[in-house]
């Protein structure tokens, strides 16, 4: 039987591990950094689990009958509508930033690359979840082809969604999650091309994090050394706007 570690299990297990670390606990600076909710959870998950530990995968008969759209159901901008009306034939995924070889990939090119299928559970910060079968291209070979430079520390995902107010949705992950085997650029859900409501033509699946990290309507991937100067500087749209944790591991 596989062992599934929830966020609560990780925190409790890590707390037991830390029981003998009184010296660190008495250091105010260390305590503030370590025991903030986000930093503590990141430390617990990364410290207690292998970096390539897999999120649970499910059987086909466990797939949810309906996969509820999360967040925006349609960017509805003139630029996005033009791409959608043309079947996304003119859409391109741009890979730029701290790379030695910038890329511009069509949907057909992505479809032709080796892909991965995984049946996983999407957990929304609002409290609902759904199980779906995703098919897409692992992010790692895309980044390898782009030849990340030594200074790259984060991967930023820029989306077609302007959230109705001209503030583009974006998200980011570090290289540990970027190179994880279950981190894919998904173009199909439950054996069908992504619907607009679910992020067509391409969305991120980073299976060990909460739903708001699963950026939809991808347009550009950017490798950066720092998140400062991107959006509000906190690494994602909801992180900037509502104070969500940047690290949303589950």
UniProtKB/TrEMBL annotation:
<dbReference type="InterPro" id="IPR000572">
    <property type="entry name" value="OxRdtase_Mopterin-bd_dom"/>
</dbReference>
<feature type="domain" description="Oxidoreductase molybdopterin-binding">
    <location>
        <begin position="89"/>
        <end position="224"/>
    </location>
</feature>
<protein>
    <submittedName>
        <fullName>Putative oxidoreductase</fullName>
    </submittedName>
</protein>
<dbReference type="InterPro" id="IPR036374">
    <property type="entry name" value="OxRdtase_Mopterin-bd_sf"/>
</dbReference>
<dbReference type="Pfam" id="PF00174">
    <property type="entry name" value="Oxidored_molyb"/>
</dbReference>
């Amino acid at each position: 039987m596989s062992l599934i570690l929830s966020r609560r299990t990780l925190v409790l297990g890590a707390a037991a591990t830390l029981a003998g670390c009184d010296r660190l606990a008495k250091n105010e600076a260390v305590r503030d950094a370590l025991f903030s909710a986000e930093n503590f959870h990141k430390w617990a998950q990364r410290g207690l689990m292998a970096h390539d530990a897999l999120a649970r995968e499910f059987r086909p008969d466990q797939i949810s009958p309906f996969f509820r759209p999360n967040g925006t159901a349609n960017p509805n901008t003139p630029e996005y509508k033009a791409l959608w009306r043309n079947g996304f034939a003119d859409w391109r995924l741009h890979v730029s930033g701290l790379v030695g070889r910038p890329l511009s990939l069509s949907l057909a090119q992505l479809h032709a690359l080796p892909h991965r299928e995984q049946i996983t559970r999407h957990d929304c910060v609002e409290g609902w979840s759904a199980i779906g079968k995703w098919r897409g291209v692992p992010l790692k070979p895309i980044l390898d082809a782009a030849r990340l430079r030594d200074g790259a520390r984060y991967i930023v995902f820029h989306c077609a969604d302007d959230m109705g107010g001209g503030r583009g949705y974006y998200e980011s992950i570090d290289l540990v999650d970027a190179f994880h085997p279950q981190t894919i650029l998904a173009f199909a859900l439950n054996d069908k091309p992504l619907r607009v409501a679910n992020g067509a033509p391409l969305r991120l699946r980073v299976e060990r994090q909460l739903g708001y990290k699963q950026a939809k309507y991808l347009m550009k991937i950017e490798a950066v050394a720092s998140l400062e100067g991107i959006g509000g500087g906190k690494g994602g749209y909801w992180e900037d706007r509502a104070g969500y944790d940047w690290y949303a591991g589950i």
